[in-house]
Specification:
The protein is an all-alpha fold and 153 residues long. It has helices at 7-17, 22-44, 58-76, 100-105, 108-117, 138-150. Bound molecules: heme C. Residues 67, 71-72, 74-76, 86, 90, 92, 94-95, 97, 106, 111, 114-115, 119, 124-125, 127-129, 131, 144, 148 line the site of heme C.
Amino acid sequence: MHVRVHPSLKNAEEFALAEDLPEDLDMKSFAVLLVAASAALISGCGKDGGGGGDSIDPAAQAEASKIYMQRCTTCHGPNGGGDGPGAADLNPKPRNLSDATWQSSVDDAYIEKIIKLGGAAVGKSAAMPPNPDLATNEPVVKALRAKVRSLKK
Ligand code: HEC
């Protein structure tokens, strides 16, 4: 099969090979724009639609609620108040996850990191345990982070 290359494509290739040409830069930014545009398209067409690219999978959400009750309430309490039965012996105390000031002082990535890797990984008390089984389970980690966010008062 014979492929005919359009002359302008050939030129573009030469520009890309040449160093420090403004055309080269233009092509790079065009490529970046293309990538951004397709990313926007893909997230816009996500199965949940209109979720802003961060929608929580319902199954993962159910799993996260279960995990919160099983693993987190011991220390943080059912409503995140830091008043679980395991809290008494701890110093520092488990964070009051419902505290609005704390909530606005941390970003989602931080919350997801402490859930996966534990307190020690973010310079906090090692009494806040890691959850290694969730390290590769992004949907459930995101849902747990959303659960933590939902505790805000
Ligand atoms: C054994 C008790 C214990 C368990 C179980 C526990 N935590 Fe914690 N958690 C702590 C303690 C103690 C801190 C406070 C660490 C500090 O202030 O140094 C903390 C802090 C946190 C913080 C806030 C970190 C900060 O910036 O202050 C988040 C978020 C958190 N835990 C989420 C969770 C979630 C979600 C679970 C369940 C998957 C969980 N924790 C299970 C004890 C626990």
